[in-house]
Structure formats: structure tokens, C-alpha cells
């Protein structure tokens, strides 16, 4: 497998912004341009990567604040799941409410991703998995032993569901019936915090693992 990644932890909310790239062709995609565009650009330039597009796992403001600067700097398209369009349009207001700062209007997406779509990066392919729950249009990107899980699944936790469009029953279903169908050895690269593996989460996650409190309840 030639798909590799870099991660930058960005912004006041310490979001993980990933650059997934084919180590042979150096083609790359940016997954969650959360903030600090300069960090992402520096990583791209230092490693001589060829960015193709920006993809969001979801459109909460702490995952899209650098999109406009990166689109302008790199002249590449921006893709989201269509069901998160309303969340994207709310990002300016949510940034003001949560952080007390003003940002520019969010850029319009150049297109949309959907369940089962395949994204080509050099010789590698990432598959879109629609995982609603944290937001209606939350998605994960899976390629072999890597899963970019956004804010759906964290080490020992799951995404919050109390924001607009969130659903506890949906996020549990997304994790148990979609993500947990993947092999145990798949590495989970979340939107915040440290990485984990699906095998560890299946067994130990207190919410959705074996005997997890939400898994028992729903």
C-alpha cells in the first residue's frame, strides 16, 4: 500500500487535519482543512506533494476554517456530503458563538461525495462511508489499513450528538453497522485526539464497544 499521510493539529479546538498521499506519484488530498492553512501549505511544500482536492469529513467550523485560504493558494476543489450543506452555511455563526471571532463566509463546495464513492489518489483509492450522527452529512474515508473517521469515532469515545443535526441513534448505527464491519487492524485517524484501531474500539469503547452503554440501550 502506497497511501501515506501527514497530520497537522490545527486551530483553537485542536482539530486533526490530514494530508493523504500516494508515496509514488506524490498526489495528495487534504482531509479536513480545519484552520492554520499555513501549516498545511508548509507540509505540502516541504514534502513536494501534488494536492488534488480538499475533502471534509463534516462541516463543523473547526474542520473547514482553512478551506478558503487553501482553495485560493492551491486552486483545488472542495467536496462535502450534500447533507452537511446546512451545517456549512451555519459555520460562520457557530464560530462566532463558540470562539467569539469573525470569519469569512464559507466557500461553496465544488461538488459532493456520497456513500460508496471512490476517490483516486495516484494508484491508491479511498472509499467514502456515509456515517450520519455527529452531523447529517458526516463521512469517513477508508483506504486499506487507514480510516479517516472525522468526529464519528475517537479513541475511547464517539462524536457528540447534541449540536444541530446530531443523532445518537444514527451515530451508533453508523459505527456498529458500518465502521465495525471493517477489519480489526484498521487504524482509526480521528478528527481530534490520538489514533486508535478498530479492534481496540470494538472491544473497549465504553459507548459502542462490547457491552457499551449506548450499544446496549439502542
From TrEMBL:
Presence of the UniProt keyword Metal-binding in the record: yes
GO molecular function annotations of the record: hydrolase activity; metal ion binding
Organism field: Caldiarchaeum subterraneum
Cofactor needs: Zn(2+)
Record protein name field: MBL fold metallo-hydrolase
Ranges for domain Metallo-beta-lactamase: 14-192
Record-linked CDD domains: metallo-hydrolase-like_MBL-fold
Superkingdom per UniProt: Archaea
Cited PANTHER family: HYDROXYACYLGLUTATHIONE HYDROLASE GLOC
Pfam families: Lactamase_B
InterPro entries: MBL_Glyoxalase_II, Metallo-B-lactamas, RibonucZ/Hydroxyglut_hydro
The entry's keywords: Hydrolase, Metal-binding, Zinc
Amino acid at each position: 500500500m502506497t497511501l501515506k499521510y501527514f497530520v497537522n493539529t490545527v486551530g483553537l479546538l485542536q482539530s486533526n487535519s490530514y494530508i493523504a498521499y500516494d508515496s509514488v506519484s506524490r498526489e495528495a488530498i487534504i482531509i479536513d482543512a480545519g484552520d492554520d492553512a499555513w501549516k498545511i501549505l508548509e507540509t505540502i511544500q516541504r514534502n513536494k506533494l501534488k494536492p488534488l482536492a480538499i475533502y471534509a469529513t463534516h462541516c463543523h467550523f473547526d474542520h473547514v476554517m482553512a478551506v478558503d485560504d487553501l482553495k485560493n493558494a492551491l486552486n483545488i476543489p472542495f467536496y462535502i456530503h450534500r447533507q452537511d450543506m446546512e451545517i456549512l452555511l451555519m459555520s460562520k455563526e457557530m464560530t462566532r458563538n463558540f470562539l467569539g471571532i469573525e470569519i469569512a463566509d464559507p466557500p461553496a463546495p465544488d461538488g459532493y461525495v456520497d456513500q460508496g464513492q471512490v476517490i483516486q489518489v495516484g494508484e491508491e483509492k479511498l472509499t467514502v462511508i456515509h456515517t450520519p450522527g455527529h452531523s447529517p452529512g458526516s463521512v469517513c474515508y477508508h483506504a486499506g489499513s487507514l480510516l479517516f473517521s472525522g468526529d464519528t469515532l475517537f479513541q475511547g469515545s464517539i462524536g457528540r450528538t447534541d449540536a444541530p443535526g446530531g443523532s445518537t441513534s444514527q451515530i451508533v448505527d453508523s459505527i456498529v453497522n458500518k465502521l465495525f464491519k471493517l477489519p480489526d487492524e484498521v487504524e482509526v485517524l480521528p478528527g481530534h485526539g490520538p489514533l486508535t484501531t478498530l479492534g481496540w474500539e470494538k472491544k473497549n469503547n465504553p459507548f459502542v464497544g462490547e457491552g457499551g452503554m449506548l450499544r446496549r440501550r439502542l
